[in-house]
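Predicting holo structure, magnesium ion bound.
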Amino acid sequence: MERRKSSESLQVPNEATPAVLVEHLTKVFQPSLSRQKVPAVVDLSFRVGQGEVYGLIGPNGSGKSTTMKVILGLVQATSGRTEVFGIDSGKVGSRRDVGFLPENPYFYKHMTGRETLEFYGKLCGIHGAQLRERVPELLALVGLESAAGRPIAGYSKGMLQRIGLAQAIVHRPRLVVLDEPTAGVDPRGSRHIRDLILQMKAEGTSVILSSHLLEQVQEVCDRAGIIYKGRMVLEGRLEDLTQLQQQMEYVVEGGPPELAAEIQTLVERAGAKLVSAGHPRTTLEKLFLESTEDKEPATGGTRHD
Amino acid sequence: MTETHANAGTAPAHVVPVWEVSPIRLWVLARATFVQLVRMKVFYFLLIFVALVLVVAAAGLFWLPTEHLIAIKRWSFGAMYLFTMVYSISATALLLPRDLEDRTLYTILSKPVPRIEYLIGRLCGVLLLNAVALAAMFLAMCLLVAWKMPAVEQQLVQQLLHGAAGEAVSLNEVNQAKAEAARYGLSTSLLWAVWALYLKASVVSAVTLFISTIASSSLFTIVSSAMVVFIGHFHQLILDFWKVNETGWFGGLIGRLLVIVFPNLSLFDVVDEVITGTSLSFGAGLQLTGMGLFYVALFVLVAQLVFVDKEL
Ligand SMILES: Nc1ncnc2c1ncn2[C@@H]1O[C@H](COP(=O)(O)OP(=O)(O)O)[C@@H](O)[C@H]1O
Ligand SMILES: [Mg+2]
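Done. Tokens:
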């Protein structure tokens, strides 16, 4: 049924069209006050399939934000090309199906959270009953119902991040671009954001997100690319990237002390080497989450902040 | 490897056909701009206008009604002029640089919003603000003029009687005096004068918008726009200077450049004539409108040329 349409117009993507295509992208900045050129991205190529969650990982200044801005047509490539669902990033039409959460997002501080979502919704062509239905739905989704009537000026970092996420998906885009969605947000808030990303993934939305921390993308990404100084240094499926093929890990609970010695001899007899043994540590994040779980007051959605 | 794709980035991809500009989105942007400016409490400045009007109204005690009426109009128009210029420059100068700085531009332009739409929407918001402020001030002035009219009429009739020194005055002469009074009162020419002011403010807003696409700071934009307004009022002076003084090719070039680059704002100064009762013809009004629209369109176009490929 969709087949006919796509033969009529080249711009209608089929299932094979990647959500994002970046080919040999190079971006060189030339700050107006200095003669020195800044190569932010160098010959970068990758693609994000439809329904895939892709992570861009790299330290600060490695070119993640620049890559995303080129994908969204906010910055022009020096060379190479980027496409969104088969449409060149420079074309306004390529933004029809994309939601963007910029790094450290900021919104009009005179608007309330609700007005902000209405404003962005209208820019995406949503009006009337549809908008009246969508906005409360989004506010509930990001847990900002109780703060919806307050001006953005009073929002905390975590709340801004969540209202930013909500405005990015107001028009139910098929691709969401998130630049450091969890930066500066406490673990509880960032877990909430991660859950939202997982939910989008479950709904078949393609996601590209950036982070300077591998752990933050580990749980949500299908694939990830590690970029450093504007170049892709490693790319692959998350399991492949994080798996240490040569090693195995066992966690035992309640065994007698002699068991450790027995395992040691077993390992040595097999000609292998015991790399580490001991009590596993919980992560600080887990600890934080566990110890703040019960003490949390039951008041609306703004409690994390 | 990269060379084969090198041309992709330079394609004029941002250029949007006119039919892709959506009036609904324009209205959304204009309204948001208007609300933003209103919430910045710009209308509080109108209180100064009210105070001024009250002072001028009270000053009537010391003036002849005809003089008073002219004073009312002159001061009101002076205040309207000042307010619209301040609004046009400062409000417009605040918008784009702030959006850039706060990175709100990212979220707006990553929606399917062509850049030209953003520019026009912003401008329309300021024009809306000017319209509302001017309408309010004009209305206040009209009320004051209407309130003053009976006194003016009475004064002129009395002057007639006084001049007649006891001799009979024909009804015709009285009617003439009344007609003379009406020239000072509310007229379509006053409407043209306020419209001319609005056109001038719109041109200044468009100029400011254009400057703000080049500059990224509000302060620079405000100072430059104020300079354009200043020079724009002295076109005739520049032309005269250039013609009268044989300034040589250099001076001549500069004069010519100034006149071309800076919009001729003195075109829109019809207030002085209108205040003293000269009427403005429909044709002249139409011509003014045409000039205003031309300048606005021109500066929006240049702004778009700069903005369309701007790195955000
Ligand atoms: N507008 C700009 N002008 C000049 N240099 C820039 C600009 N934007 C980014 N850069 C430079 O490009 C590099 C990459 O920046 P960015 O993409 O923001 O990195 P990341 O998001 O990975 O932290 C940095 O060295 C940064 O200083
Ligand atoms: Mg960044």
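The first strand of chain A starts at residue 20 and ends at 29.
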